[in-house]
Structure formats: structure tokens, C-alpha cells
Amino acid sequence: MYNDDMTIGSWAALRGRCTARHTVNDEDCVEFSFRSGAQTLELAFDAETLETFVRLGATALREMRELRAEPD
């Protein structure tokens, strides 16, 4: 039923006011921690997944900026 590569049943909305930190644990594991008040979201990536996430994030950011630049 579940994929061994990811098991989760939640979502989060992050805004600019939350603090963000990262910790490189070893050559193939980095953790990101996002905190706002008492709420914390932690994500851990291996190098391959982080590369995909960064690439997709850069594409998404570019698309968001293009939408902002479009005239009303």
C-alpha cells in the first residue's frame, strides 16, 4: 500500500515569517527545519532527492515571478 521511498499523510503551508535552517548530517543526508512559534516542520533529503527538489523549486519560483510580472 505504501511506497518505501515516502510515507506521509500531512501538508503544510509555509510563509516568509517562519525561520528556516538546514543541517548536513553526512554526504547523503540533509535536514531542513521550518519553525513558526511552537509549530515545526522537518524534511530530510538524500542528495538525489534534494537535487530534484532544488531544480523543481527553481522552476516554480521562476513561474511565480513571471506571473507577478504580467500586467493586470
Give an overview of the whole structure.
The protein is α+β, with helices and mostly antiparallel strands. The protein has one domain (19-69). It has 1 helix and 3 strands; from the N terminus they run E-E-E-H. A 3-stranded antiparallel sheet has the order 1-2-3. The longest helix is centred in the last third of the chain and has 23 residues, at 47-69. The radius of gyration is 15 Å and the shape is globular. The termini are far apart. The model has no long low-confidence stretch (mean pLDDT 88).
Mean pLDDT: 88
Radius of gyration: 15 Å
Share in helix? 25-40%
Say what oligomer this is.
Answer: single chain
Task: Please count the helical segments.
Answer: 1
Gross morphology? globular
Q: Strands of the biggest beta sheet: in what spatial order?
A: 1-2-3
SSE string, helix = H, strand = E?
EEEH
Q: Which regions are unreliable across 5 or more consecutive residues at pLDDT < 50?
A: none
Structural class: alpha+beta
Largest sheet: 3 strands, antiparallel
Number of structural units classed as domains: 1
What proportion strand?
25-35%
Count every beta strand, where a strand is a DSSP E run of 2 or more residues: 3
- CA-CA gap between termini: 46 Å
